Amino acid sequence: MSSSPPRVQPGSFLTLHYRLAGPGGDIINTFQDKPATLTLGTGELSPAVEQRLLGLEEGARATFQIPAGEAFGDRNPEMVQWVARKLLRELGDPDERYHVGDVVQFPTPDGMGSYAGAVQQVGHDGDGDGVADAVLFDFNHPLAGQPVTFEVQLIGVL
């Protein structure tokens, strides 16, 4: 009796290579590295990405084009915020120098996780110390509101 390879179901434990890319190129790509392991439904991948994995067979390789906004939501203008130096000191390294394009990790309020903000602009008060008084961060996912290419190679399905 030949049994068919296992298929991805809700809650499956997966070993896989995957690549997420936007118009500007790859955001994450594990193909050159060791594969990722994750459990479906735990929030490690966005629901739109997980949806496309369901039903795939172990060993499958596939590429999906996900429409703008579906994978990581639309860009939310309220997620672009100025953060004052006082708060930056409390949350991170007081001597940190911020530059446009830097991605900074912040702890979540419960301290259990972190979220990232990309520096959009650095405000100085002209006292010459070179330290930002406030930094404009974009807390949107880098692929929010953009079409996403999701490529996957399923190595193992449990």
Strand fraction band?
Answer: 35-45%
In DSSP terms (H or I, runs of 4 or more residues), the helix count works out at 2
Main sheet overview: 5 strands, antiparallel
Which structural class matches the secondary elements? mainly beta
- Low-pLDDT stretches are none
SSE order: EEEHEEHEEEE
Q: What fraction, in percent, of the residue positions are helical?
A: under 10%
CA-based shape: elongated
Q: What would you report as the Rg, rounded to the nearest angstrom? A: 20 Å
User: How far apart, in Å, are the first and last alpha carbons?
Assistant: 20 Å
Mean pLDDT: 90
* Count of extended strands: 9
What features would you describe in this structure?
This protein is mainly beta. Helices cover 9% and strands 38% of the residues. It has two helices and nine strands, in the order E-E-E-H-E-E-H-E-E-E-E. It has helices spanning 47-53, 85-91, and strands at 13-22, 25-29, 36-39, 61-66, 80-84, 103-107, 114-123, 134-138, 148-157. The longest helix is centred in the N-terminal third of the chain and has 7 residues, at 47-53.
Give the topology, please.
Layout: E1 13-22, E2 25-29, E3 36-39, H1 47-53, E4 61-66, E5 80-84, H2 85-91, E6 103-107, E7 114-123, E8 134-138, E9 148-157
Antiparallel strand pairs: 1-2, 1-3, 1-9, 4-9, 5-8, 6-7, 7-8
Compact summary:
The chain is mostly beta strands. The chain is built from two helices and nine strands; from the N terminus they run βββαββαββββ.
